[in-house]
Amino acid sequence: MRGDSKATIDYEYKGTLFQLTEEEHWRGPSTYLITDIKKHSEEIEFPAQANYKQIEKLALSDNSWYGRENKKEYIYPGVKKIIIPQNLGIDCLENKTFPDLEEIVLSPAHKDYSTDGKMLFKEKGTELFLALCAGRQDSVTVPKTVKKLSNESFQNTRCQEIIFENPDIQPQSYTFEHSTWFNSFKKKKEPIYVGNTFYKAFDDKPLTIKPTASRFFKEAFSPHMPRELTTHIIPPLNMMRGSHYRYDSRGCKILNLTMEKKKINWNTIASWSDLEAVHFTGHSLYKDIDGVVFSRDGNTLLYYPRCRQAASYTIPEGTRTIGRRAFSGQEYLQEVFMPGSVTQIYQGAFWGCAELAQISLSDNIKELPDATPFQPGGVFERCPRLKKILLPQNLEHIGAYTFAQCQSLQEITIPPQVRMLGEYAFMNTRLRKISLPKALSFVGKGALLFDAQDKPIISAYEGTARGLIGAIEAVPPDLTEGTANLAWHGATIRLLQEDGSLKDEIIIPESLKRASGLYIDIAWNQESFDYDEYDSCFEDIADAREKMDFAIKILSTQRDIADTPYEGYLKRMGSKVMERLIDFCPEERVVEFLKYEILSKAALKKALKLCTAKSYNTAAAYILNLTGEGKARKETAIRI
Fold this sequence. Notes:
Elements (H helix, E strand, L loop, with lengths): L7 E6 L2 E10 L2 E12 L3 E3 L3 E2 L2 E6 L22 E4 L18 E4 L6 E3 L3 E4 L4 E5 L7 E4 L5 E2 L11 E4 L15 H9 L3 E3 L2 E4 L6 E2 L6 E2 L11 E4 L22 E4 L8 H5 L6 E4 L5 E4 L2 E4 L4 E4 L8 E3 L6 E2 L12 E3 L6 E2 L12 E3 L6 E2 L19 E3 L6 E2 L21 E2 L11 E3 L6 E2 L13 E5 L6 H6 L17 E6 L5 E7 L8 H8 L6 H5 L8 H12 L9 H20 L2 H8 L6 H13 L3 H11 L1 H11 L1
Parallel strand pairs: 3-6, 4-7, 7-8, 11-13, 12-14, 16-18, 17-19, 19-20, 20-21, 24-26, 25-27, 26-28, 27-29, 29-31, 30-32, 32-33, 33-35, 34-36, 36-37
Antiparallel strand pairs: 1-2, 2-3, 5-6, 9-10, 10-11, 15-16, 22-23, 23-24, 37-38
Helix pairs in contact: 6-7, 7-9, 8-10, 9-10
């Protein structure tokens, strides 16, 4: 900021009256800044010192960010020549300040700058700092030694033509601001090239890049993006993201690539959110079929444009591979048909397809690959409308995150050959039930972490699907272990025998402490389900009603409860357990509980009334036998 509140003096030097402002330095003596020129002629020679104090630099431009409404314009018309001493800082020198300047005389010993009289250079002549506003009216040639143009280089200049001897010269964002040369292109809406750099486009009309161009300036398409671009070089990722990221422009819709051999990173092209078609002219590695990109031999589908407005697409017969992120982010496709020739799909092939609801996969696909930290994106991850998918019958592996965040997926059949489910394969889907095949040997962490309101039901064969409990109860990847208990939820595992018949239903209590889930995990990961380990989690069920139902469920196995965690609980809670059995369970379950003979006489009498009221006659008779009343009634009947 300018030091307007500091002490100022007027100082006349060689016919020019300067305003000097004192600048204090805590480590050394104070100096002066030149903050205004009150009187001048066509030639100004700047002083190196005043009153025995060094003059540090020119400060004629008010560049403060505050109080802009009161900013003063420092403009000195009529000055044609300036003379600059050795140690004077001139970083703020601008053409706007001296609009009629034709010549600069600079001390040869100046530590930062050099000049040819008409241009001011930095960095030992490799950077053009300033081309004088009135120094050359028609044509300016930038020497070959110059590699960089500063922001101030051609601002407010009047030259009609600029010639760049160094084709690799690097311009900046404001290098040509308010210049006659720049404004002439802008008025005619002609694109600008600076050396071999494509610098600026001024409308969204179709654009063909010159063969001599080798790169794009970072703001070449701001704010105007061509609707159709024909080019032999690919613009950087951050330049071509289209209208989703740019509020004042439509994105490029058609891309015509004219290079012949260069390998293309299709992840970069995939980020062009408004692209509808890509076309090639004789490329040795790629071709397009109706705007969709394939390898030259047609074996691999590499890229399907994100903004291609078709509701369905049939992959051509003969295609063998769907490339990584080939359909990623597609916004219109609702249905995809895949021929039997396809044998391989790469990571993220259909990641984030917003409207995809149905897809038929080739039966010759054996693997849906894992997403990894180095190659993120499950094959169908984040397809929010995906409802129907028929998995290949020969499928053996469903990889990590394959169907993660598919929030409309409510039903799926796992093929019989599948041997592994990867981590978070079905995370946050709407699945309520799923049947796991006998061939399944391992289930990854969080693979069955459904986003279900009801407790999910998973059918699995005994001795298979190792890791199943961790697949159901994993901590989501975006949570820390400190919040793990928040993610625990109840589930039911239908335990199947070798022939597919139901052996038991294993309950995962919703109110169980996460740490106690270890017992269920150990119980499951055995050749046969270990009920002794399973029993160990009973005491850590927090909800009283759920704990009772858990105990009732154990009774259905007709196990010996002696010396188990259930024995004492059932003796204490026997009466309430019996009430719940009579209210919600079939009569045979009530009889099974009575056979344990753990109810007191008072509890049995109460149970007798409830059984009689519900017409559970067999249970009532059993209670009468337990209390002795049944024998007494029989003897009375005989006597009568």
